[in-house]
């Protein structure tokens, strides 16, 4: 593939509430997905939470962004982010595999014999650890996150540390929303910056204000596109070796 990189681009929106300023995050997620950026959502819930409206938005954003949604208690956030990333990679690869199988042999995975399907699934499992990921984490830092922000910081750091065990390259960015003054977001770490800066910068982020989810998603799209304009990754998965 001319030494170009196969990459999955994803946004993970981590929030404990409904967007309340800055436009419709569902529309923003649709736009991201049109640009081959998957939008996943994680809703942080309290054990006594009864209001389902914020949870509905979490589902709507993920569905519009071609992504996965999960609910979690704050103490389980790291494991949930890790699970969402794993599921996203495997599902994206399987969708690409099914598309190519249909074009090459007129079948998808469900149509194949158990032996052939097993061969392809083994390939997907192996390849999922090798594929590159661009992961932009959007961390809700609105007022309602005040008693959860410490655990959220640790969860992000633990997730990024876990990426070191993958064979494939992982490029990570972190955006907090809202930002300073009247800004809808704050760039905590960009893709090309040193991860050693992240811990210090995360601890500089304070909780306050509203929940401008749509502006944060739009900004995440912008920095992902800027990064790819420089790096020119390839997004085509080749199956010939797996089924040859």
UniProtKB/TrEMBL annotation:
InterPro entries: VWF_A, vWFA_dom_sf
Top-level taxon of origin: Bacteria
Domain VWFA: 1-89, 134-244
Protein name: Ca-activated chloride channel family protein
Pfam family, one: VWA_2
Organism: Anaerovirgula multivorans
């Amino acid at each position: 593939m001319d030494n170009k990189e196969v990459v999955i681009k994803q946004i993970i929106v981590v929030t404990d509430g409904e967007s309340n300023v800055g436009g419709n995050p569902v529309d923003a997620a649709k736009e991201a997905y049109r640009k081959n950026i998957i939008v996943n959502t994680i809703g942080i819930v309290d054990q006594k939470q009864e209001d389902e409206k914020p949870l509905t938005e979490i589902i709507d954003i993920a569905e519009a962004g071609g992504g996965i949604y999960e609910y979690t208690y704050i103490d389980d956030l790291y494991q949930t982010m890790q699970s969402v990333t794993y599921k996203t990679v495997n599902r994206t690869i399987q969708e690409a595999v099914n598309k190519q199988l249909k074009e090459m042999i007129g079948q998808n995975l469900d149509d194949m014999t158990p032996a052939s399907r097993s061969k392809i699934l083994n390939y997907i499992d192996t390849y999922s650890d090798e594929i590159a990921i661009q992961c932009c984490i959007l961390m809700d830092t609105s007022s309602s996150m005040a008693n959860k922000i410490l655990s959220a910081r640790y969860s992000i750091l633990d997730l990024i540390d876990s990426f070191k065990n993958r064979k494939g390259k992982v490029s990570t960015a972190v955006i907090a929303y809202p930002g300073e003054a009247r800004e809808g977001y704050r760039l905590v770490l960009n893709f090309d910056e040193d991860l050693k800066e992240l811990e210090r910068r995360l601890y500089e982020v304070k909780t306050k204000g509203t929940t401008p989810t749509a502006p944060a998603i739009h900004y995440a799209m912008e920095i992902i596109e800027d990064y790819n304009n420089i790096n020119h990754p390839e997004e085509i998965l080749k199956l010939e070796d797996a089924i040859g």
